[in-house]
Specification:
binds pyridoxal-5'-phosphate, 14 helices, 4-stranded antiparallel β-sheet, 11 strands, alpha/beta
Amino acid sequence: MRRSMAEAAVGDDCYGDDPTVNTLEALVAEILGKEAAVYMPTGTMSNQVAIRSHTEPGDAVLLEQTAHVYLNEGGAPFALSGVHPRFLRGIDGVFSTADVEAALPQRHPFLPKHWAPPTKLLCVENTHNAGGGKVWPFARLVSVCEAGRAAGLHLHLDGARLWNAAAATKISEAHWAAQFDTVSVCFSKGLGAPVGSALAGTAELISRARRFKTQFGGGFRQAGIVAAGALHALRYHRDRLEEDHANAGIFASGLASIPGIQVDPESIETNMVRFRVTSSDASEFAVRLHAAGVHVLPITRDMLRAVMCLNVTREHVIEAVEITRSVLRSNSTLRPAPGH
Ligand SMILES: *Cc1c(COP(=O)(O)O)cnc(C)c1O
């Protein structure tokens, strides 16, 4: 990957003449079965440009209440697009057609037509980050998208980890993407590229997206150097995602053998493991694990999350289980982890 980046042909992406970026965009569009794609510096920008492209300020957007676009993107939908949220309550990020219908504004001849903001967009996330890497059941996703279309909504997929959903189900990325107007995918997560994401959709929508990419400060000149890393990841790292899923299963089974930890290995669908510590505060436990070399995030007061990727090997996972076991056993006093 580093070699392909060093040797990449570059131009100026603001002028559309960076050959490596153009190759990457064409390949993404092909894999996702869309007319066009645009390379983005981050997944956050990709999602937020999508939201801005589908709406005008004051429009309403249907968001699941634990969606990455809502929880983890700095309040961008409201700050940058001026949209109004209508929340859906899913389970691990997965909701139903009834949830979509209940979140739509009520219509009745007695109600003034212009009270509720126009609802324009429905966002779906697959796999679901806050849902522990949950994959949407395909039929459920189709029915939810049909309900959205029936209500006249545009449909956006936050597919930062769509590659993982495809690897776990053998349902192709294009098949998932076909349900949506726009799809955002990340190269910088499980695929292991240093930089970037892409937004795919119709040529018309992607042309509008390029305007907001510029407006949000995303025109990034000689981007071919980083696009070459993304291209390498797309070509050579998708096939190995199942290893991450297998490693997540091994980690979960190992943790399940440790007294004081609760985890359901059966619930692991992709590359994330959520587990509960019963005898300690999750954030303290994360600091102790970090000091011992295992880097996981506390996600609630008693839950932690581990994520597998291409630089975590099976040996690392087995070692991490043993470190977790000994950290839990030891009563070592809390020491701040390096860098904290
Ligand atoms: C990481 C992530 C993003 C954002 O990607 P960045 O490149 O970190 O901005 C968006 N959606 C989901 C589900 C993610 O996990």
